[in-house]
Amino acid sequence: MQSHPEPRYARRPKTYFDLLVAAYCVLLILSNIGATKGVAFGPIITDGGFFLFPLAYVLGDVVTEVYGFRAARRAIVTSFCAGAFASVCFWIVIALPAAEFYENQTAFETVLGPVPRIVAGSLAGFLVGQLLNAWIMGLIKRATEGRHLWARLIGSTLVGEFADTLIFCLVAAPILGITQAGDFVNYLLVGYVYKCLIEVVLLPVTYPTIRWFKRHEPTYPRAEAVAAGS
């Protein structure tokens, strides 16, 4: 009986980078959809994506710390493209003629209609903020010779999140109905302070996460992986 040769495929290197990029994209797209809903906790004004978007910065810190600025830039651009594609898809779906039996066109447009505009602001903020975050984190890592992980995690977030939040709020505020100067400042400061606090609160999670990836990523230098908690 004649045996057939096994089919050939491209070899896939063992790395966790692609999984982190996929998570990056999912968080960005979901947070953009959630951001179409204005949310108020008493006098505190925010949006529905408030609990999702900060996690993207935690992932960004992991990618930058483990894989470096170039890899982080690739992940950021990939997520940017995924978010833009999602926005175009929503625009196309809204523009498609609704079937006679479909009764939710107006509701669908109301909920997802602002997404393309909000995504424009979110993507611009995301691109600028994340690139600043990754760049500054790399600068601090070189300046401290890899020590004081907490300093580069917090320092990079303070700069990146401010640029990100400012750009996003300038675009999203009028769409969400925030037109008063006081409400805008509230929206901006609450978002910025909250995101920075999340970074601090999640440090006990970020530290072991980075340590785990350093020790299990085959391409990471072994000597540095042993001291991954620095």
UniProtKB/TrEMBL annotation:
Protein name: Probable queuosine precursor transporter
Transmembrane segments: 16-35, 41-63, 75-98, 118-137, 149-178, 184-205
Record function comment: Involved in the import of queuosine (Q) precursors, required for Q precursor salvage.
GO cellular component: plasma membrane
Top-level taxonomic group: Bacteria
UniProt xrefs under InterPro entries: YhhQ
Membrane topology note: Multi-pass membrane protein
UniProt entry tagged with the keyword Transmembrane: yes
Organism this protein belongs to: Rothia santali
Alphabetically ordered keywords of this record: Cell membrane, Membrane, Transmembrane, Transmembrane helix, Transport
Family: Belongs to the vitamin uptake transporter (VUT/ECF) (TC 2.A.88) family. Q precursor transporter subfamily.
GO molecular function: transmembrane transporter activity
NCBIfam families in the cross-refs: queuosine precursor transporter (TIGR00697)
Cell compartments where the protein resides: Cell membrane
Pfam families documented for this protein: Vut_1
Main subcellular location of this protein, as a coarse class: membrane
Keyword check for Transport: yes
